[in-house]
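Continuing from yesterday's entry. The apo prediction looked reasonable, so today I'm repeating it with NAP included to see how the binding region is handled. Same sequence as before; SMILES copied from the compound registry.
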Amino acid sequence: MSFFQNVDGGVEKTERKPFSGKRALVIGGTGGVGKEIALLLAEAGARITLHGGSSQERLAVTMEAIYERGGEADGFLCRIDNVEAVDRVFSEYSACAARAAYLSRNERFINGAYHSPDILVYAYGPFKRAALNETSAADWQFLTQQNLTLPGVAVSRVLPSMLERKWGRILLFGGTNTDVIRGFVTTTAYSAAKTGLGVLAKSVAKAAGGAGVTCNVICPGLTDTEYADEAARAYNQGKSPSGKALSPKMVALTAMYVLANRSINGAIIPVDEGVVV
Ligand SMILES: NC(=O)c1ccc[n+]([C@@H]2O[C@H](COP(=O)([O-])OP(=O)(O)OC[C@H]3O[C@@H](n4cnc5c(N)ncnc54)[C@H](OP(=O)(O)O)[C@@H]3O)[C@@H](O)[C@H]2O)c1
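Holo prediction written out below.
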C-alpha cells in the first residue's frame, strides 16, 4: 500500500500514479525544495508547470530531469518582485497549460480548465538576516510581501477554480521554527510573515476543506540547497541536531505525503529534526 492511496479521498489499494490528470504549478520549482517536489509530483503523474526566477539553466535542467523520469513538464521564468508579478505568473501558467492541452488534445483542458492549476506549490520565499533594530522599512515591506502577501494573493487566485472542481491542493512554506508564535532575534520580519501563513492555511481549510481543497504549511529545518553559500552551509550544519542539514529531498518526501492526503488540512508541519534556531 502506498502513502498516496487516499489522494482522492478513497481507500483503494492501487499502484496507479496518484496525481494522473492533475496539473501542478510549482512557484520556485527550478531549485531547492521546490525542484524536489516538482520531480516527485511528476513521478506521481502530475503534469508540471515549473516557475523559476532568472536561471534559464536551472529551468532547463529541471525540465530535463522530469522528462528523464518519464514525466511531463513545461515552464517559464518570471522574477517576482511586486504584486503584479503574480498576475504574470498565472498568465504564463495559462499559456503553458493551453499549449499543452492543444498538443495533447486533452478535452478537459481544451474546455478551459487550464486557467488555474489543480495543485499549487508556493515554494519561493526569500530570506534576509538582520537584527530587529537594523531592519529597514524596505526590508519589512519586501520580506512580508514576498513571504505572506504574495502567497496569499496566489491562494485567493486559485481557490475559486479548486472550489468549482471540488478538488485542490495548496502547499505553502513556512520558515524554520515558525510553526507556532515565537520570538526571533535576527529574522523577525521573515519569521513573522512565515508564521502568518498558518492563518492562511487554516482559513482555506475552514472555507474549502469540505469541497476537497487542502492547504498546509511545511516549516523546514535548516536545509542545504544549491543557493546556500559556505557560511550558510556551516551554520546549517552546526545548528542541525544530527550535525547534518536536511536535504531538499527529505522535505519534499513529507510534502508528497501531505499533498496526497486530504485528511491533512490547515496543518502547520515542522520538518526539522526538532532544531531550535
Ligand atoms: N533552505 C532553508 O534552509 C529553508 C529553511 C526554512 C524555510 N525555507 C523556506 O522553504 C522554501 C523553499 O526554500 P529554498 O531554500 O528551497 O528555495 P528558495 O530560494 O526560496 O526558492 C528557489 C526558487 O525560487 C526561484 N527564485 C529565486 N529568486 C526569485 C525571484 N526574485 N523571483 C522569482 N523566483 C525566484 C528560484 O529560481 P532561480 O534559480 O532561477 O533563481 C528557484 O526556483 C522557501 O519558502 C523558504 O523560505 C527554507
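Comparison notes:
- The longest strand covers residues 213-220.
- The pocket of NAP is lined by residues 28-34, 52-55, 58, 79-80, 123-125, 127, 173, 175-176, 220, 222-223, 225, 227, 248 (CB under 6 Å).
Will overlay with the apo model tomorrow.
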